[in-house]
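NurA domain-containing protein
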Amino acid sequence: MTTAAPLAIGAITVDPWDPGYGLALTADLDSGIFQESSAQLNLDVEVPADAWAPINPDPAIQPPATVLFLDGVRRIDARIWVHGPDPHPTPGIAASFAAGLVCCNGAARILDVTVGRGLFTAAPHAADILTPLGSYPVRPAAGGGPAELSLSLQQRLADAEVGLALNFRARHTDEDDLLLVDGPLRGRTHLPRTVGYIKTHHAAYLPTPQAATVAALAPGQRTPVFTMGTSWIRHAWYLRLPGPSAAPWSGVVRLECSADLPAPQAARLASVTASLLPPLASVPHKDPRAPQNLVPIGGLERELRHRLGDAQLLYRALRKAGTP
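Predicted structure tokens:
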């Protein structure tokens, strides 16, 4: 595989993602893409830090018989004010969420989907919202700020996702599988044979020498495994998926697994993903987040959004259920 050629001074590239989704890389570009972060790093997990170089896929690696993709979607159907004895109402959100599990073992098929709704608020006097199109039971939030309401919604979605994975593995005891979770692995590190899949980069964790290895990755190549600790600890590695763009970090994803795995097992898992994921990369004319939004995940997301129901109809139903 060839290393990506450096761009000429003054050249520009257009980020391949649809602008509506933001940037695949959202680090502070003014201070440099490869600014060191405060994360605690162990760069010597697989190879010594000073020996980092792109790693080619291992042709001897056998992928698991079954690959599972776990993902979820969420939507705010309406912003709510909960009135009570206090003259100032308490904010909340009426939201819908859905989680799904895709199985790939020769063909991709959706195994299970769960849909939920809720009134997320910190108001102690809130009551369930009942509409002809569905109910929004009260889901207590830690506070009324946008971040706290969003966190409460995200936690419900994460719980639904984990429930699907646990139910599937309770029914299928064959351990020749790999579960790919769309998003960070935080809160799900207890799931065995599981990898977190991160499409966007909100921080640049690696020091400059190792970050240069990420920039030098060719499609299908990965970095060595390293351990990173922020508010939690995990093994991680970067992988570049195939794609036509030369934009910075285009096609680069970060993957995570439990830090409890011994280094050789984590390295083997990294090699499995490097063989398994590039053929599943999406293409720009079919997905605005290509190539990072893998084909099974993109298909699942479309189905989950459909299962959420019509947003305008739900909004109207909520308006009718509320106080004029």
